[in-house]
What we know:
It is a single chain. By secondary structure, the protein is an alpha/beta fold. The protein is 27% helix and 31% strand. The chain is built from 9 helices and 15 strands. The chain has helices at 14-19, 36-44, 64-71, 111-121, 133-141, 154-157, 208-217, 251-263, 292-306; strands at residues 4-8, 29-33, 50-57, 61-62, 77-85, 88-92, 103-106, 126-129, 147-150, 161-167, 174-181, 193-201, 223-230, 238-245, 264-274. The strands form 3 sheets. Strands 1, 2, 3, 4, 5 and 11 form a 6-stranded mixed sheet that branches.
Amino acid sequence: MPASYAYLGPEGTFTEVALRTLPEAATRQLIPYVSVQSALDAVRGGEAEAAFVPIENSVEGGITTTLDELVAGAPLMIYREVLLSITFALLVRPGTKLADIKTVSAHPAAQPQVRNWLKANLPDALWESAASNADAARLVQEGRYDAAFAGEFAAARYGLNALETGIHDAENAQTRFVLVGRPARPAAPTGADKTSVVLWQSDDHPGGLRDLLGEFATRGVNLMLLQSRPTGAGIGNYCFCIDAEGHISDRRMAEALMGLKRICREVRFLGSYPRAEVSVADVAAPLPGTSDREFVAASDWVARCQDGRF
């Protein structure tokens, strides 16, 4: 396996900045790809050891491009996550003034994070989406657009000026990025972990989603993300992307996943991995009756009953 990580490029993206916070990134060749799909396909095809891509932001929720790529195609697994605080700069060619800007560009996920600023300061500017914020900066450099919303750090890379900085509609906005590789044994539990899965219902019936969520709720597993995505099989056909607190080696999580496997048409395990910026001390204690010790004790009691030793 080549010692390389693919990431959503080109150089100068928030994705690259987040990736470089991982200690192991210093020992890998970091290769930019033009899209999330191409970065993940590089892993599937053996061109890269892992891919680093955005998956969620605190303003709009899940990044649908990434979720859809993890739902479809050959299975992949999440091994790490990184949270990065996001503020934008308005990057322009030297000499450009605010009144000169007629077109602006950025990644589609950036638009909801700068919408109010854009309305207040450039209400007549035409928005054009780009493959990434850094790619928008590159297109400004080439003269395709007048301005790009990107990280201030990208200005020097593309010979642009930061006309405005610190742009964000929501305070403390963050984007979550994940390191994705081919399926293997999950890392050992840390006590502050997250498990990601995709669920397909066996059939469409009243209370179907409640049945899925009930497998988590009755075992005291807290959900952190729930997002429906169309399956492509027609209107009304959806799968569900879920992040839940805990590790697959936790008894409550394992039993919830077994319950889901029994009632779902398909369950895709996307990995159990450490939660970013969360320590064991930050994790709430399990609800009464849902700790590993209590699951083991209940299992032992059933075994004794079966042996006539109750």
